[in-house]
Fold each of these.
Amino acid sequence: MGNLYGYIRVSTREQNEDRQILALKDLSIPEKNLFIDKQSGKDFERPQYRKMVRKLKKDDLLYIKSIDRLGRNYSEILEQWRILTKEKGIDIMVLDMPLLDTRRGKDLMGTFLSDIV
């Protein structure tokens, strides 16, 4: 297994990211591997997200609290999911939706379920 990462996003500087930090705190993610953006999820042109993606390597594991913290644009989320899981070869675990855990079932059925979800 590779390194553990966590991604946190809130939509504005006034919003509080503490709920997401608490959810990721018990997962033994090194502090240097936690990336926080305070801006809209309308696209993926976010500085910390981009920095994190550059660091991710095959077999790393990315935790996010919920899928809407990754982004708000459905087609762009799908594209980023494909890039991360297929091109970069990382696993993603969405804490609020256990079905979205690409570590489960690396066989045909697991891949199929992950792709559908």
Amino acid sequence: MGAPTIEIAVQDATGARAALDAGADRLELCQALEAGGLTPSLGILESVLDAVDPLLVNVLVRPRPGGFVYSTEEVAVVEADIRACVERGAGGVVVGALARDGRLDRDAMRRWRDAAGDATIVFHRAIDASTDPRAVFDAVIAEGADRVLTSGGAARSFDGIALLSEFAAASAGRIEVMAGGGVTAADIPALFAAGVDAVHLSARRRSGTDAPSGPGGGASGHDVTSAELVAEAVRQARR
């Protein structure tokens, strides 16, 4: 295994710069982290790709919350968004789809792999919602994914270490295994000790809670990337 890699989920250009300046190795760009992450707007995408090295940016392409079984129309939307991300220079895209039986939606993955071209394709935590994560892991490798983001089937990656270790051993260099899901900096040494190649976390804090809000505006405040939390995650990874 190479040097431990820290990936930070960010939601805007400010967060992207802060994460990389604090030592992160790469980024996942998304919106609505409180909903598990959704596709960022075109404006946000372009601002981030202008602000940092585009090859370090992996864009989450998820059209809606509420599971990972998609209609034909939704699969087409994801395909179009993948092409838009790649055309603008993003280094990779982050996707995932399940069939109604809880296994991998192979047809969707093939369309999305083709749309991604030479860009990195990451299969996200849909694997942790599947009926058989081990079968999905093998299928994702067969369909040409470059990386899989997983908590090992648990709510928190730390609690899924046994399956993460199994995935890392089974990968045999065919796919990068990245632990993600409820990760704290203190968890990171144990996750790398389990054999994973990378760890993913949001490293966010709440900001703007004193700004006016109310009906129609949602709860007060919003999440921002914390350079301090990123730096601590990096420090733990380099121990």
